[in-house]
Amino acid sequence: MDDRQFRNAMGKFATGVNVIATETDGEAYGMTANAFMSVSLDPKLIVISIGHQAKMLERIRQSGKFSVNVLSCEQQDVSMIFAGQKKTEEKFEFERLGDTPVVKDALCQLSCEVYNEHVEGDHVLFIGKVNDMTLADGDPLIFNCGKYRRLEEFAEAVQ
């Protein structure tokens, strides 16, 4: 199988969209990702996957902390900004959760410290210990088959 075929196969799995954020030298940075999952309830651990080529990799290693921000269906523009798909003149303004930058109005904001790190293939898996979190009501932004989606689309398709 070739790389494109494998990517297409993985794209069949619908995922939520989140922004990973961290801060180094007083500057906050973010990147759009969908490789995120919960790992453990005790202790409260999650995992994110960052490619070896991503600038975020060294930033998280340097800071030792990051946030995961689960985007709402109204935040497609935010995802596109941090995926490099949309340019903006203004600097993105992060909020704070403890000492970690977070995305305003995200459905879920998780403030984490790096608990462990595993190099696997062309990515690094960061295990994050969740230190703080916020939750909000709303529907998540979904990514499937290379497109942004909303829950309504899936509900309508099932009916």
Topology:
Layout lengths: L2 H9 L3 E2 L1 E7 L2 E7 L2 E5 L4 E7 L3 H9 L1 E6 L5 H7 L12 E3 L2 E3 L5 E13 L2 E13 L6 E3 L2 E3 L1 H8 L1
Antiparallel strand pairs: 1-11, 2-3, 2-6, 4-5, 5-10, 6-9, 7-8, 9-10, 11-12
Describe the overall structure.
With 159 residues, the chain is of the alpha+beta class. It has a single domain (3-158), classed as Pnp Oxidase, Chain A (Roll), CATH 2.30.110. Helix content is 21%, strand content 45%. Strands 3-2-6-9-10-5-4 form a seven-stranded antiparallel sheet. The chain has a three-stranded antiparallel sheet with strand order 1-11-12. A hairpin with a 2-residue loop joins strand 11 and strand 12 (147-149). The radius of gyration is 16 Å and the shape is globular. The model has no long low-confidence stretch (mean pLDDT 92).
User: What is the beta-strand fraction?
Assistant: over 45%
Low-confidence stretches: none
User: What is the number of independent domains?
Assistant: 1
On the 0 to 100 scale, the average pLDDT is 92
Structure annotation, total helices = 4
Helix content: 10-25%
- What gyration radius follows from the Cα positions, in whole Å? 16 Å
Biggest sheet strand line-up: 3-2-6-9-10-5-4
Say what the CATH topology is. Pnp Oxidase, Chain A
Largest sheet: 7 strands, antiparallel
- Per the principal axes of the C-alpha atoms, what is the gross shape? globular
Structural class designation: alpha+beta
Helix and strand string, N-terminal first?
A: HEEEEEHEHEEEEEEH
What is the end-to-end distance? 35 Å
- The first-level CATH class is given as Mainly Beta
The beta-strand count equals 12
Q: In the CATH hierarchy, what is the architecture at level 2?
A: Roll
CATH superfamily: Electron Transport, Fmn-binding Protein, Chain A
Pfam family, one: Flavin_Reduct
Protein name: FMN reductase (NADH) NtaB
Keywords: Oxidoreductase
GO molecular function, one term: FMN reductase (NADH) activity
